[in-house]
Amino acid sequence: MQVPLGVPVNDPSKVCKLRKSLYGLKQASRKWYERLSKLLLCLGFVQAQGDHTLFTHSTPDSFLALLVYVDDIVLVGNSLSRIDHLKQILNSHFGIKNLGLLKKFLGIEVAHSSKGISLCQRQYCLRLLEDTGMFHCKPAQTPSDHHFRLHQDTGPFHDDAAGYRRLVGRLLYLTTTRPDIAFATQQLSQFMACPKACHYQVAIRVLRYLKGAPGRGLFFPRSSDLQLLGFSDADWGSCPDSRRSISGYCFFLGQSLICWRAKKQATVVKSSSEAEYRALASATCELQWLQYLLNDLHLQCSSFCSLL
């Protein structure tokens, strides 16, 4: 690294040699992940093939799963003694901070009950409404008008293009627990380069919809079958500008919604059948990845996976 200001040096061409990684360096996160993964592998953990940030450890009487996001770790398992033992090992190597039962992770609020687990981003949503000045707005019943298709309008440009991009980016992260705004956000993200005033009004409509139920999210019941069920659909030639189709799919694990997506197809298709096949192919790739992930977690579906 370069010599910090205030440190006397005779030769200005010399640099400092780091003995350990520091925060702020581009190599720091990679070195941290390399050291953590090496320790976990030495402890008998297996790195998942479907997601390299997931590590699992299985014995005849216990199972542990550890998920890493930079320096945030989620640890789950069916043996409290094994979990406590792993926490002690991690603390001896890195000095971790134990936050107890998972209640919040990357802005996602987690609530536990006897019936199941619920995920939402209520605080994130309320902060978004407050930052955009829509905290006291009148709620809307739907995120968008299904009779209106966004397109490259000839109207005036929005006066704050950077603010529009920030707003759409925050809405994209909100779709982590809000699949009901996934399609509307996908439509808004097409005009990040040169947003018009009408596009911003549609984004305001999404904010008004969020005001009606900022705490809405996902619920995962504890009594649910381990069966993958997927749904795929396509809207043929729905883009007014390019006439490309839009693919959409969602997957349920039992009664729990675990995966969804809305995305414009890469090419123009000649028929609705071709659009449906392309959407089905995209959903099949996602289904295959979900099966890999379930295998890494040592979970077997109760019946064959279905894609409709």
UniProtKB/TrEMBL annotation:
<feature type="domain" description="Reverse transcriptase Ty1/copia-type">
    <location>
        <begin position="2"/>
        <end position="143"/>
    </location>
</feature>
<protein>
    <recommendedName>
        <fullName>Reverse transcriptase Ty1/copia-type domain-containing protein</fullName>
    </recommendedName>
</protein>
<dbReference type="InterPro" id="IPR013103">
    <property type="entry name" value="RVT_2"/>
</dbReference>
<dbReference type="Pfam" id="PF07727">
    <property type="entry name" value="RVT_2"/>
</dbReference>
<dbReference type="InterPro" id="IPR043502">
    <property type="entry name" value="DNA/RNA_pol_sf"/>
</dbReference>
